[in-house]
Write a structure and sequence with these properties.
With about 70 residues, the protein is an all-beta fold. It is built from no helices and five strands. A hairpin with a 5-residue loop joins strand 4 and strand 5.
């Protein structure tokens, strides 16, 4: 299942964050940030996939920041 939302919180020391997507809060780990940076700003708009996580809960994977397009 694919989704879109915004990073609601991110703890850089622990590597865990959450995405707010249409009223749902979905956790993610920094290893799932697709650009390989392992850090992301709170408020960043992202796309992601929801997959079963290792801790028995649904988690976001393939977290990809949405880049704003340049105005014409």
């Amino acid at each position: 299942m694919a989704g879109q939302g915004a990073v609601a919180e991110f703890d850089e020391a622990r590597g865990w964050g959450t995405i707010d997507a249409a009223g749902r809060t979905i956790p993610f780990h920094c290893t799932q940030i697709s650009d390989g940076t392992r850090t992301i700003e709170v408020g960043t708009q992202v796309t992601f996939e929801v997959r079963p996580g290792g801790m028995g809960r649904w988690e976001a994977a393939a977290v990809t920041p949405v880049r704003a397009s340049a105005p014409p």
